[in-house]
Amino acid sequence: MTPHIASTSNPKIKWVKSLHKNSTRRDEGVFIVEGAKEIASAIDGGYLPHSLFVCPKIYGEDLPHQENTEIYSISEECYTKIAYRGNSEGLLAVFQTKNRSLDQLTFGEDPFFIIVEGIEKPGNLGAIIRTADGAGADGIIICDERTDVFNPNVIRSSVGTLFAKQVVAASSESVYDFLEKHEITTYGAILSEDSEFYASPDFTLPTAIVLGTEHAGLSDFWKIRSKPVMIPMLGVNDSLNVSNATAVLAYEVIRQRYEYSKLA
């Protein structure tokens, strides 16, 4: 019989609520996923569900089944307390995290990586992951990590693609060593007199594009270790949102590789 929790003061409810904090998620090695589609994406991506909380008043009485997972029926009041967003179908799961290292990344002969530095807004990071998925990037590497990759807003804005992509957080130094080891050319989104138009380089070769935040741009570490490319800004503003800039560069990589494949 599925246990039912009616009180918002129940220890399980308090525990799930505590997982809204990045520090608690990291300490416990778990994260929250809301909604049937996102939960299914996490399971398909090989993540292990720890527990599942279902509000029958919202989701319906036909409770889902998942092997080796604790399932709880909860009241609407409890669901409102633990839900991160209001329209997630009355279904919330707690998953165990999986942390990849650079050495665990897999890729083909001409890899393509998207590297971001110092991204603070979860929505931007999620949108970048979604772009990486659409552009077929081999992976997303996060340097100077400032937002938890398992933040619920990252998961939501990535539309679940987080679970389908290789995502690694690592120091800039170790990332650069990884790129050097595998002879992957690094292109930094940098607006300077030395920057090439973003469509000029040959992105059909092993490629990594590196982007920083809109307000700070890339650090000096990446500026001196990357070939600078720029996206022209013809208005009064001097930069695009970082997720939009990622999309421009990533789809230029696709365009070149698609054209090359047609000619080959």
- Using the alpha-carbon principal axes, give the shape: elongated
Give the ordered list of helices and strands.
Answer: EHHEHEHEHEEHEHEHEEEHEH
**Span from first to last CA?**
61 Å
Level-1 CATH class name of the largest domain = Alpha Beta
Largest sheet: 7 strands, parallel
CATH architectural label of the largest domain = 3-Layer(aba) Sandwich
For this structure, the CATH topology of the largest domain is: Alpha/beta knot
Kindly give the count of domains. 2
Number of helical regions? 10
Strand content: 15-25%
Mean pLDDT: 92
Task: Tell me what the structure shows.
With 264 residues, this protein is of the alpha/beta class. It has two domains: 4-96, Ribosomal protein L30/S12 (60s Ribosomal Protein L30, Chain: A, 2-Layer Sandwich), CATH 3.30.1330.30; 102-263, SPOUT methyltransferase, trefoil knot domain (Alpha/beta knot, 3-Layer(aba) Sandwich). It contains ten helices and twelve strands. The protein has a seven-stranded parallel β-sheet, with helices on both faces. It has a five-stranded mixed β-sheet with strand order 1-4-3-5-2. Helix 6 links the parallel strand 6 and strand 7 (139-143). The longest helix has 22 residues, at 242-263. The radius of gyration is 21 Å and the shape is elongated. The mean pLDDT is 92.
